[in-house]
Design goal:
Structural class: alpha+beta
Number of strands: 4
Helix content: 25-40%
Radius of gyration: 14 Å
Strand order of the largest sheet: 1-2-4-3
Shape: globular
Order of helices and strands: EEEHEH
Length: 120
């Protein structure tokens, strides 16, 4: 028996190059695990973009694991009604042993973005 799909829907994702403007500005927060860039959008829904550099995770399966972890954290904790584009850049390798610490660090950063949601 297959349950309903629980991933982040396509309309809440930022496409390939469009929307990945990572210029530093007022909507940047970071910790040792992630850098989070937030910019307002006119779509009326929050969207996510994830970048995982090859120098952080050289193998594709490690990059995919990190992206899944970030998307799941965003889906669970970030409201769709907050109309911002959020781009998360991974700074430190995430694997099964460090996933819990990384998820907690990401949740703290996303809470900070949520608090500033209407101020961008």
């Amino acid at each position: 028996m297959r349950l309903g799909r629980q991933g982040l829907p396509r309309y809440r994702r930022i496409g390939r190059r469009e929307g990945f403007d990572l210029a530093p500005g007022p909507g940047v927060s970071s910790n040792e695990w992630f850098v989070v860039y937030a910019r307002p959008n006119r779509l009326g829904v929050s969207r996510l973009g994830v970048t995982v550099p090859k120098r952080v995770a050289p193998r594709a399966n490690a990059r995919n694991f990190a992206k899944r972890l970030v998307r799941e954290g965003f889906r669970r904790s970030f409201p769709a009604a907050c109309a911002v584009n959020v781009v998360v850049r991974v700074r430190k390798r995430l694997d099964r042993n460090t996933a819990q610490q990384g998820a907690e660090a990401l949740a703290r950063l996303l809470r900070g973005v949520q608090e500033k949601c209407g101020k961008y």
